[in-house]
Amino acid sequence: MVNKNKILSDLSKIAVDAMSTFSGLKKEVETIVSLRVNKVINKMSLVKRDEFEVLKKMVQKLIIESEKSNKTPKKRKTTKKTSLKKKKTKKS
Q1: Is 80's pLDDT higher than 60?
Q2: Gap between the Cα atoms of 33 and 39, Å rounded
Q3: What H or E segment, with its residue span, contains residue 72?
Q4: How many helical (H) and strand (E) elements, i.e. helices and strands, does the chain have?
Q5: What phi, psi does 55 have (nearest 5°)?
Q6: In angstroms, rounded to a whole number, what is the distance separating the alpha carbons of residues 13 and 17?
Q7: What angle do CA 42, 48, 56 make, to 5 degrees?
Q8: Measuring CA to CA, which residue among 27, 51, 30, 56 is closest to residue 38?
Q9: Helix (H) / strand (E) containing 52
């Protein structure tokens, strides 16, 4: 009976040590993968999300301002042709 308890105790210690090792291994793998992903992203010269959002808002404001300025009525200049037509109709 003592041998069985000792064996179970040893197995329990091994299992706890294995879980601890796997936990540390998981953290190490996550760190390595994260570093490699960041390295690839930096090589690709991607824009960060917050920078993209700021630029997007700026472009939207410019578009709105441009649309407003295009909607304002502009004075039409009379060309020579239209003024000549008016003169001809007056003579007749």
Answers
A1: no
A2: 10
A3: none
A4: 3, 0
A5: -65, -40
A6: 6
A7: 140
A8: 30
A9: helix 49-71
How would you class 15 by CB atoms within 10 Å of its CB: exposed for 0-12, middle for 13-18, buried for 19 or more? exposed
Residue 1: predicted pLDDT: 63
- Tokens read off for 25: 């291994």
Decide: helix, strand or coil at residue 47. coil
Which sign, positive or negative, has the C-alpha torsion 50, 55, 59, 61?
positive
* Rounded-to-integer distance, Cα 88 and Cα 82, Å: 10
Asked whether the whole model's pTM tops 0.85, one would answer no
CA 17 from centre of chain: 42
* Structure-token pair, residue 26: 């998981």
